[in-house]
Amino acid sequence: MPAKAKVLILGSISSALAERSRSLNFEHVSSVEMIRQEISRRTPAGQAAERALEKGLPIPDQVIFGVMRRWFWARKPDAGFVLTDFPATLLQAKVFDEWFESRGMSLSACAVGDAADSVVVDHYRTQGYDVFVADQLLAV
């Protein structure tokens, strides 16, 4: 798979698989890690995420969208990546699809990691993607 491939892994992957993606010269991007960084830097997004987590609530979509939007629009359209942990919901998948469409981009591959939402997996299948198991996709 070329290093400029855009790979979406629905759910999470093991640290060993994340290391494998980096060894293949892919930028590994995790929304969970990006939110953790926001929390540690005490940014407004990080503080909002931390408040939600302290209350046992999910992190609000607007916080996740803000963090992921900054990453997505700051990158070069032809740069490859392996994205995990986002999109995690059908709403997030539809918004992410709109971002891709607005830049004339498409995914190279879609795979299922751990704890993927079956509704999101089904969404990408109906979009015409063959959805692989993440271990198989990165085991080249």
From TrEMBL:
GO molecular function terms noted in the UniProt entry: kinase activity
Highest taxon, organism lineage: Bacteria
Entry keywords, A to Z: Kinase, Transferase
One Pfam family per UniProt: ADK
This protein's name: Nucleoside monophosphate kinase
Taxonomic classification: Bacteria, Pseudomonadati, Verrucomicrobiota, Opitutia, Opitutales
